[in-house]
From TrEMBL:
This is 7,8-dihydroneopterin aldolase. It catalyses: 7,8-dihydroneopterin = 6-hydroxymethyl-7,8-dihydropterin + glycolaldehyde. PANTHER family: DIHYDRONEOPTERIN ALDOLASE 1-RELATED (PTHR42844). One of its GO terms (cellular component) is cytoplasm. Catalyzes the conversion of 7,8-dihydroneopterin to 6-hydroxymethyl-7,8-dihydropterin. One of its GO terms (molecular function) is dihydroneopterin aldolase activity. InterPro entries: Dihydroneopterin_aldolase (IPR006156), FolB_dom (IPR006157), GTP-CH-I_C/QueF (IPR043133). Belongs to the DHNA family. Pathway: Cofactor biosynthesis; tetrahydrofolate biosynthesis; 2-amino-4-hydroxy-6-hydroxymethyl-7,8-dihydropteridine diphosphate from 7,8-dihydroneopterin triphosphate: step 3/4. One of its GO terms (biological process) is tetrahydrofolate biosynthetic process. It comes from Actinomadura viridis.
Amino acid sequence: MSSDRPDLDLPDKDRRDADRPDTGRPDTDRPDTDHPDTGRPVRRGLDRIELRGLRARGRHGVLPAERELGQEFVVDVSLGLDTAPAAADDDLSRTVDYGSLASRLVAVVEGEPVALIETLAERLAAVCLQDATVTEVEVTVHKPSAPVPHPFTDVAVKIRRIRP
């Protein structure tokens, strides 16, 4: 028996979607999978892996003393990716190895000096996006010993980059 509303004749999932406007964009809030225990739909968004407080000494800065003496930089990264494949297989090769990533980030901080922490942040973001599983990254570079002539807690630059 057919109803007056065509969407009521649809299966439950499709009936839920019938009232949603078509935006032409992928709908990241739609159920992508079923929960392994309940069998009910699970909504998946972008997962995050965060590495915070990574410390390394570098010679970045505009002033000659910063280049000569160097100083400590603190890096935070937040990686956007789908961790479900790695979780399903319990397989490190299907996600980001954050130990290896930390070593690569430290190598950048300890490497070739740049004048601006904005430039350093861009280089660090590029390293993070080398991993094919990472679709976006947010990088914060803290420069706690920046040459500021007044009392302060921190100077930081935060950037967000999304894979095209």
